[in-house]
Amino acid sequence: MRKIFLPAILLTVAVQVKAQFGDDYLKAADKYYKTADYASAVVYYEKYLQAGTKSNANEYEPYEITISKKMAQHSNSHQAVYHLAESYRLLTNFEKAQPVYKQLLQAAPDITPLAYFHYAGVLRAQAMYAEAEQTFNIFLDKSKTGDAYTSAARRELQNLRFIQEQLASKDVKKYTVQKITGGREGASYAPAFTPENNLLFTATWADSTVAAKPRNRNHLFQGSYTGGAVDNITAVGWPASSWHEGTPAISNDGNTLYFTRWKMTGGKKAASIYKSTRAGGVWSEPVALNAIVNEAGCNAQQPVILGNGKYLLYASDRTGGFGGYDLWCAELNGNGEPVAATNLGDVINTPFNEEAPFYHTGSGSLVFTTNGRVGMGGYDLFYSAGEPGKWQQPTNFGYPVNSVKDDIYFTASNASKKLLENVFISSDRTAACCLELFHLSRSYTRYYTGQVVDCATRQPLTEATVTVTGTDGKAVTEIRSNEEGQYVIAAEEGMALNIKGSKAQYQPAQLTTSVNSSSDTIKNELLCLTAIPKQKQLFTESKLEVRNILFAFNDTAVAASDYEFLDQVAAYLKANPQAKIEIGAHTDGKGSVAYNLKLSANRAKACFKYLVTAGIGRERMIAKGYGECCPLEKEFTADKKDNPAAREKNRRIEIKLL
């Protein structure tokens, strides 16, 4: 395309060719513009502006072009440049539209307030946020009508703040976004999974199987996604149509396909939803759905099957909506034909456009696109949990699911309960003109890092066992700390964890993680373990306890002075989960043999119960009463006198490792 120098065009009229050529170019350009053939309009507006004009200079009326009123027979040169900028904008070629708007408004600042509105939108799409905010404010100063454009400009100012917040988010690194169209020219969009896990989509790509279709005609294709690209691409096999065809939805058995057919006539779209069935591998001739979905004089498009074939979600500008395109739900009979249609309501729909619905069964979420809510600009993708009649307030996915351009179609694998784990979207974020297919995935893994240390010295503990469970007690993982006492745990995002540290000769300790964080890596507080003092080591190499628990005469209660010792026994058993013990109780020689056996058994049970209360499993302990067996000292002196001190030593508990 030849470069044009707009200041010279705007301020002087070239006279290098005959004026008649200029008029012819202008008439052709206006004709194409009026019929929404903006690609052709660009060509002839540029020819006109390079050739010169003899049109009148005062035939323009504000808002005339954008709202598609009948245009004047000719445009003046400023108006022609405005049409050129608008054509680029409507082709989403913002890079070319931006300098045309800029130079137009420098030369003709009072041409129309809407020029500032559309220019600001182009600046936003070019990531020129400060300039976009300034230009939207100029529009609001110049436009005093308080119409829909004024409301839209105010919302766009909110969008600009939202955009900058999103671009600064640390969550971006959780996402992987990759274009998968393989360098093919033309649009590719509206992806949908087949039961075989292939990809159905719409494209304007050239293909020998659809040779009868004109250039830039939309058609349905099927392919497989492997290695970051779509390959094995074939066109859906039914006779070529003169209509555009796209936005597929296929049944779970793969034998019923709903899709949209549409035509553009005089710049006006006429779209309806069709159905085709497959038998013996051959698709039937598509048939339009009845008037319950395809209301006369209205558009119905972008179907998606819901509830195992019981419902059909779709977008329509039919009567009874909230304005623009709304999302509707049609109930289907056993033959897949609509029997009733219901608007999804004002929780979902706005006075603007809601389109391209998708329902993710795994997470129970409705996904759709809209240009009627605060977002990153243009069309943004939103999600709402629920089901027909019970939708929650929609939430913007944010960046990078959405971009500053248009993000419209969405499909995700229902095999996952995570909405963004395996997703295909359509966006023009990297394109000059068209929607393209992207694969997107989000990591739902959160990492917890920490260190196990000695509580007293704060020195790292190597090879400490770190046991991780959910708050429901379900095991997650078990790892060992490294030479620096450090550990890293990978767990599902949003899951609270109990992290327990243990090591021989240390009392175990535990901490619970927080889920109230947006970070993908959380640093835990120190997990410090208290050493069991060596001077109070419980067991010798011969596995005999070196200190006894003593009882008062005829008593089975554990003395408070011995609680600390039993707590040390409990700590040892917790730190050594394979260890088992015998709790052996002994009495002195007073009383009968039978009585002392019963008394000793009760004393053993008292210690047993204490340790159970301290968290030691019953299966790890044996309580046994030995009665007056095995005294440590003689209870009578050589002259036959009673020895109370000896009797006190003999009333004891001995704990042995088994």
UniProtKB/TrEMBL annotation:
- Localization (cell): Cell outer membrane
- The OmpA-like domain extends over 538-658
Listed A to Z, the keywords are: Cell outer membrane, Membrane, TPR repeat
Please tell me whether the keyword Membrane is annotated for this protein: yes
Q: Which InterPro entries does its entry note? A: 6-blade_b-propeller_TolB-like, Bact_OuterMem_StrucFunc, CarboxyPept-like_regulatory, OMP_bac, OmpA-like, OmpA-like_sf, TPR-like_helical_dom_sf, TPR_rpt
What does UniProt give as GO cellular component? cell outer membrane
- Name the CDD domains on file: OmpA_C-like
Q: Which domain of life is it from?
A: Bacteria
PANTHER family associated with the record: LIPOPROTEIN YIAD-RELATED, STATOR ELEMENT OF FLAGELLAR MOTOR COMPLEX
- What protein name does the entry list? OmpA-like domain-containing protein
